[in-house]
Amino acid sequence: MMIALSFLFDNYGLYPNDLVDNSFIIDDKLYKVEEIKNYSEEDMNSLVNFSIEIKKVIGKDYQIIKNRKNQYITRNVNASYALISVPIYKVNYYDIINFNMFFQNKNINYKVSQMIDIWLERYNNIQNSCFNALNNEDKYYNDIYIAVSYSFGLAENAISYLADAKLDYGDEIERLVLSHVRLNSLDSYSFLNPLNMIYDSIVRDYAELYKFNLIDLIELNKITDYLNLTQKEATLLMARVLYPTKVFDILEDNYLNDDYKFNKASEYFKTIDKELQRIKNLHKLLIKKYNIRPIKWLLK
Predict the structure, then answer these.
(1) Alpha carbons 35 and 22: distance in angstroms, whole number
(2) Closest Cα to residue 295, out of 147, 230, 284?
(3) Which residues of 97-127 are buried (b: 16+ CB within 10 A; e: fewer)?
(4) Sign of the CA dihedral 289, 292, 294, 298?
(5) CB 30 within 8 A of CB 88
(6) Rounded to an integer, what distance in angstroms lies between the CA atom of residue 54 and that of residue 39?
(7) Minimal CA–CA distance to 67: which of 14, 5, 6, 2?
(8) Which residues pair with 79 in a beta bridge?
(9) Cα–Cα distance between 198 and 137 in angstroms, integer?
């Protein structure tokens, strides 16, 4: 939902000159209104308290802004919102490495079988709901259909590869670090947004950076050296790169938000050959470096 300037003034006393995609800039800081679900005021307080520790490590002062009622959550009609503020600067993958390595969590249990369930549920939801929204009269239909079908094939392979990893190495994921739900940009908002943080495998962020073409194979190779990945973690990295986050995001945005974004799926079609080559290049590297289980069709 697009919020209005009156919402910002009524709830936060702010009236920016420009408001684009619920975002605005004041004094070299980016502010964004985020719709939130399944968060209580207590949850937001916990995020704020944790942010104090994060600031000590990264030296950047990001904030969840309280509203006029001295609360972090602002309710409007049938939705709830939070206002996030971050300094504007360019992030590099060294920042992400430091972030991941400092915030490790040994008190959380996360398993490969849970990853499989999450990926399978998302795949099934998209197949049963989003895919049915395709319009065969759309001039981009053929490109979109190929792109979506290709992404389904990748998802099936990724899920199957995770199942093999569970058999080969066991179900437990040993190194869990503070990561990002989605890291498809190296901007400070994606990096610092507390609503975009999650504990997951140490390879999560770097798989996303590689999938979204924000780091190349040489950089990813250096990162795997620095992180001292195990064979199991290298296998999880391969599975994550296979899983088609980009096109699934497009389909979910289109279906859930009623925005016409299928043209983005047609643009994705144009990148399939290059993306496949990047997947093959990583596969070759990880086989040579970590002796991961090979995927036959990627060897062709």
Answers:
(1) 10
(2) 284
(3) bebbeebeeeeeebebeebbeebeeebebbe
(4) negative
(5) yes
(6) 20
(7) 14
(8) 76
(9) 40
Spatial separation of the C-alpha atoms in residues 137 and 146, rounded to whole Å: 15
Query: Alpha carbon 131 to chain centroid distance?
Result: 21
Which amino acid appears at position 226 of this protein?
Answer: Y
Distances (CA, A) of 180 to 19, 124, 155: 25, 23, 20
Distance CA 206, CA 209 (A): 5
State both tokens at 288. Answer: 């040579």
Provide Rg for the chain, Cα atoms: 20
Average pLDDT score over residue span 210-214? 95
Distance CA 245, CA 19 (A): 28
Note the pLDDT tens digit of each residue in 91-143.
Answer: 999 999 999 999 988 788 999 999 999 999 999 988 887 777 777 777 777 88
CA gap 95, 194 in Å, rounded: 16
Closest CA to 44 of 23, 22, 68, 70: 70
Band (pLDDT 50/70/90 cuts) for residue 145 is: confident
Q: How far apart are CA 180 and CA 203, in angstroms?
A: 11
Please say whether the beta carbons of 56 and 103 come within 8 A. Answer: no
